[in-house]
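Students often ask why inverse folding is considered easier than folding. One informal answer: many sequences map to the same fold, so there is more than one right answer. In these notes we will look at a single instance of the problem. The structure comes first.
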């Protein structure tokens, strides 16, 4: 359409030029208009045809964690809507901040996305003095994917069978107990920083390149406990290879009905849930942002997809919370929230 319009405009202009030479100002205006329309002719069709090839969705952690699981479930349905495959790329480092920085610097064409979370886009600014990206200014928000209840888990032979026993044992054995996390500033590290503040403890903290490797070592009995998204450990809890002390949400999860809440178990001060969301680099064209958000919303509305998310313990965001603007505002509030919690504890972070 733009090309045809450009052709008609240029043809009309040429006819007028043959009859008489327009004034200098008019010639300048014609050149400017033709240049603008030529630019539109080259840009708009490419944006309108998005996507023309596969899309990469970066998961800034090793495979096996809750963020990874949610990315694969949601990405699978988004690919059907968009008509192109979505390739999941696991890339870990520095609590997810290294790959997040890489995506922030990628071309804003919609072909490189990242599934960020509480750690990379909420807690990282207060955990890294020289963070190389701004979670708000350096990204185009696409939308929330799913929330994740945090559960306190231990190795299966840990000498505590409920939350009260766990708190008592950790307080008395701080020099012997260790905690696993998926990198400083990540969701596991952040939520367990809060737990240790609430308990008044300071144990050894062992960092991994994501929740998956940390959970594997806990199942093997090499790590004592962790604070982790329920989606990453629901199968281990069911199989008895890990013990769940409590879930840090107001209500029990249908995916783990036998696990009490922290309020029920005697630690009501510890209430926290993780979240995940899709982002693109800043300056993404608005129509591409809209297409990606539409595909995400359709994935969350799909009965089979939402069922899969609920089965692993995820929480589906309300419709009003799925817009790009809602996500932008949420990230801003999370940065403020976690800064007030984590900066006082910065000297204890490992």
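Output (designed amino acids):
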């Amino acid at each position: 359409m733009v090309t045809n319009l450009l052709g008609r405009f240029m043809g009309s202009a040429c006819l007028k030029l043959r009859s008489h030479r327009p004034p200098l100002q008019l010639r300048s205006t014609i050149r400017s208009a033709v240049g603008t329309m030529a630019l539109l002719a080259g840009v708009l069709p490419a944006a309108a045809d998005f996507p023309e090839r596969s899309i990469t969705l970066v998961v800034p952690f090793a495979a096996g964690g809750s963020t990874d699981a949610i990315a694969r479930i949601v990405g699978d349905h988004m690919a059907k809507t968009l008509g192109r495959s979505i390739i999941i790329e696991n890339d870990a480092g520095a609590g997810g901040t290294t790959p997040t920085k890489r995506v922030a610097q990628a071309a804003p064409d919609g072909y490189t996305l990242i599934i960020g979370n509480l750690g990379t886009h909420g807690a990282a600014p207060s955990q890294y003095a020289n963070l190389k990206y701004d979670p708000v200014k350096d990204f185009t928000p696409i939308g929330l994917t799913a929330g994740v209840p945090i559960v306190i888990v231990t190795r299966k032979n840990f000498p505590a069978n409920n939350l009260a026993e766990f708190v008592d044992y950790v307080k008395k054995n701080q020099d012997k107990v260790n905690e696993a996390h998926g990198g400083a500033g990540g969701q596991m590290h952040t939520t367990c920083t809060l737990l240790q503040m609430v308990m008044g403890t300071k144990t050894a903290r062992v960092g991994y390149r994501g929740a998956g490797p940390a959970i594997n070592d806990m199942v093997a009995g090499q790590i004592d406990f962790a604070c982790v998204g329920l989606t990453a450990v629901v199968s281990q809890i069911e199989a008895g290879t890990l013990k769940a002390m409590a879930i840090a949400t107001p209500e029990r999860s249908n995916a783990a009905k036998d696990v009490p809440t922290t309020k029920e178990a005697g630690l009501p001060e510890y209430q926290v849930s993780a979240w995940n969301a899709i982002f693109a680099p800043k300056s993404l064209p608005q129509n591409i942002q809209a297409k990606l958000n539409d595909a995400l919303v359709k994935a969350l509305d799909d009965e089979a997809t939402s069922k899969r998310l609920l089965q692993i313990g995820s929480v589906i965001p309300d419709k009003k919370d799925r817009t790009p603007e809602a996500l932008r505002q949420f990230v801003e509030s999370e940065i403020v929230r976690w800064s007030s919690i984590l900066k006082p504890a910065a000297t204890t972070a490992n």
